[in-house]
UniProtKB/TrEMBL annotation, chain A:
This is MBL fold metallo-hydrolase. Residues 25-216 form the Metallo-beta-lactamase domain. SMART domains: Lactamase_B. GO terms for molecular function: 3'-tRNA processing endoribonuclease activity. Gene3D superfamilies: Ribonuclease Z/Hydroxyacylglutathione hydrolase-like. It holds the Pfam family Lactamase_B_2. It comes from the Bacteria.
Automatic annotation (TrEMBL), chain B:
The keyword Transmembrane helix applies. The chain crosses the membrane at residues 20-42. The lineage of its organism: Bacteria, Pseudomonadati, Bacteroidota, Chitinophagia, Chitinophagales. InterPro entries: PAS (IPR000014), PAS-like_dom_sf (IPR035965). Residues 58-89 form the PAS domain. Pfam families: PAS_8 (PF13188). CDD domains: PAS. It comes from Paraflavisolibacter caeni. Keywords: Membrane, Transmembrane, Transmembrane helix. This is PAS domain-containing protein.
Amino acid sequence: MNITIWGVRGSIPTIGPDTNEYGGNTSCIEVEANGWLLVLDAGSGIQYVNHSQNLKRGRVDILLTHLHMDHIQGLGFFRPLFDPSMEVHIWGPASNDSLRYRLGRYFSPPLFPVHFRDLPCKLTLHEIDNSSFQIGPFEIQSRYVTHPGPTIGFRIKNEHSVFAYIPDHEPALGPTGMPHDVKWLSGSDLALGADLLLHDGQYTVDEYKHRIGWGHSSIEDAVEFAALTGVKRLILSHHDPMHTDKKLHEIFNHLKEKNTYPFPFELAIEGLQVKL
Amino acid sequence: MGVRKHGWLFSVQQFDSLVFTPSHIFFTIVIKLLTFNVGLYASKALDMAYDIEIILNRQLADCLSIPVFITDTNGNLIFYNEPAEDILGKRYKDTGEMPVEVWGTVFNYKDDDGNALATEELPLVKTLKNRLPYHKTFWIQNLKGIAERISVTSYPIIGRAGKFVGAVAIFWRPSEE
Ligand SMILES: [Zn+2]
Ligand SMILES: [Zn+2]
């Protein structure tokens, strides 16, 4: 499984000299195996997938964790949607309104000049909840997790490895913080024993105290979540737009000094490639 | 034929689905073995954690000063908050989750005239059976023999996917109504 990180930022793209190193594009991950391509979330980082060699197969599957703007804002600029020879599948969380209706609010004037129905690709939408499904070599499970609005995380497995993806997640929400019994821990069954977990780590501990209920994690909570679920490697992503490269360095150095966990953890950087 | 036809919280009809056959026992042993090894379990099954709707109901119950009991769809008590501990006479940190056949025997239910209440009339039993909310005021007597007039409101937890995942019972002292 070949994983490439194309978007690491939460909330809003923050591209500029202060974010050059870690990157300023919003959530998007490319996952490839045996010529099959998954795109996890369609933040502004999806523009780099346009150039992926892995698009040659003629089919791409876009898996959306939820429909917050930072996870769909790049969708209209994804070239395969405008290619009649391409088969595009979009998988997203079920809600009261259909996925087509909800995405159609983005794909319609005045927000976007092209209507959903006019996209020339062969488009199929899939509504998922606590679901299990197969795409080529990938066995995929989705589960609802703690985040405002219908939001899912993914557990993606192929014959070699397991990759868990939970970019927007607040498992510590509640009066006593992070539950230590994994049975009561949101997202734990997605992450359990994964070879790699990419998880929300938007805030510092102090920032989180003022943002409880916003749907995101402190970096410390994210690392604790990874420890509780026994993951083998952790990448922290969904960086706060206010966190410059300098600030992220400081945060990460502080985290390393304070914690000695038995697994490697790092901050997501745009362009980082991981082979599982 | 049921496991506990005289159980407090469940109707005979519901207990009929809880017959322990050799295959039930076999699967219970298999599940215990799987859950013993987290790594093995991770590769075999994904549904280790409670549904998010259950988890969030517990988080809410943890914030409340009114007694709240949360059960799974079979009526097993999977969480009760601190105010509920006083009613139950037990501590969650001591008991953990309690099978229906254990916690269902803690209380004795009576109507205002002192007559024993049929289990089918209890709000939580009705909620588990019909997946609808119910409310009723009656008398309970706990293991210590203390009788108390109480109102119970119960509601089903039906998640986003339309899946029935459990039920909640809130106990009110009538003075709080
Ligand atoms: Zn986000
Ligand atoms: Zn979000």
